[in-house]
Amino acid sequence: MKIQNIRDVDAFFKIIDECQGPVELISAEGDRINLKSKLSQYLSMATIFSNGFIQELDLVAHQKEDIERLIKYMYQGE
User: Fold this and answer.
1) CB atoms < 10 A from the CB of 18, how many?
2) Each residue of 37-54: pLDDT tens digit?
3) What angle separates helix 9-18 from helix 64-76, to the nearest 10 degrees?
4) Contact 70, 22 (CB under 8 A)
5) DSSP characters for 22-44?
6) pLDDT 10s digits, 7-45
């Protein structure tokens, strides 16, 4: 799934932390990065969030509830 225009990275990672299963960021090269890992979150912030907001991310969530949570965040910011 693609998530766009993330302006509050702390709120975004709070949603990721609430997910029960793995949530992976798909890099431009096709690598899968575990966003449940704090180290991966910090590295992602340093590279992707450098201009003040994240324009677009390609994510994979493995549990239905997590997908629903991410969709709700994307549309409602919650």
Assistant:
1) 13
2) 888 877 776 666 666 667
3) 160
4) no
5) -EEEEPTTS-EEETTSHHHHHHH
6) 888 888 899 999 999 999 888 788 888 988 888 877 776
CA 64, 71, 24, 43 dihedral sign is: negative
Cα–Cα distance measured from residue 75 to residue 78, given in angstroms and rounded to the nearest whole number: 8
pTM: 0.77
Task: Return the H-helix or E-strand segment holding 7.
Answer: none
Going by C-beta distance under 8 Å and a sequence separation of 6 or more, which residues neighbour residue 49? 6, 9
Single-letter amino acid code for the residue at 23: V
CATH class of 2-76: alpha beta
